[in-house]
Amino acid sequence: SSCNSVEELKNNLTTGEGFTPIGISASTGRFRGTFEGNNKEIRNLYINREGIVGLFGQVWQTTINNLGITGSVTSTNNSAGGIVGKSDGQDYYNNCHNKAKIISNSYSGGILGDAGNQAREFNNCYNLGEVTGSTFTGGIAGRASGEINGCYNLGNIKSTGSYAGGLIGQAVGNINVKNSYNIGNVNANVYQSAGIVSSYGNATSIICENCYNLGEISQVGSSWVSYATAKGIGGKTITNCYNFGKIISGQTKPSVIGESTSSMTNCYYNSELSGVTQDLEGITDVKDMEMQEVV
Questions:
Q1: Cβ–Cβ < 8 Å for 142, 110
Q2: What is the pLDDT of residues 4-18, one digit of tens each?
Q3: What is the spatial distance between Cα 233 and Cα 8, in angstroms, rounded to a whole number?
Q4: Predicted model pTM
């Protein structure tokens, strides 16, 4: 069952230990409707429990506006997000931010932990918190699809396994990222790390446009994959993007922007900063250029 409602948060809230997420599961009742945060910040939110966790545990066809979170959100076995743990429908996140530390076994995100196959929209959202998981870890979402516009991440993102992205750990469906950036360090212990979008799943269209990365992108292990698993940006179609972050790949060849199979247009990198030199169509090394020549 689902709860259909419109709620308003009128004051800052300080929660105690072990907050129970709003809308725990589909069987017990997901949150459905619109939540207006009125530009308030919920401070010192503390969650450390099994299951799907976040301020909202599970939502369906929901819009969340103008809301921030601080504190610590931990799932010992499932999805965790600062705002929402798991989304089951076409949802909208506008002007939301997370400053909390997020930890989960899988599907960890600053705003949203896990999204199913339906598209979402993230507009003007950001993450400042550290996000850690075993797989599918991202500054905005651990796993998502849809539209991402004007979003950024400053927190450090770490996957003890695979799929760590500055914004998105894995694009489970087609995704379009515009006017967004990452400054946090991104690390995957096994494979697949990137400044913007790490892994593509079954998606056929992964677009990154007007995006940049300044964070260090690292991938430590796994020599059995043949493609670049540490990428400055990531994506299949990459336009007007740049990477000035260091790229570290322990076992496979790194890529300063996208993979060799990506379509790249008007993209830039600095080999002195990245530690990598790459000659691919559509990308330019600017280490010997004046900044006004680049911009």
A1: no
A2: 555 565 455 444 458
A3: 37
A4: 0.91
> Cα–chain-centroid distance for residue 12?
26
Beta strands in 76-184 (DSSP E): 80-81, 84-87, 92-98, 101-104, 108-109, 112-115, 120-123, 126-127, 131-138, 141-149, 152-153, 157-165, 168-178, 181-182
Which has the closest alpha carbon to 198: 190, 112, 100? 190
pLDDT at 252: 66
- Residue ranges, the chain, pLDDT below 70: 1-17, 221-228, 251-252, 290-295
In the chain, helix, strand, coil percent, each to 5?
Answer: 5, 55, 45
**Residue 159: what residue type?**
S
Contact indicator for 129, 99 with CB cutoff of 8 Å: yes
Contact call for residues 125 and 140 (beta carbons, < 8 A): yes
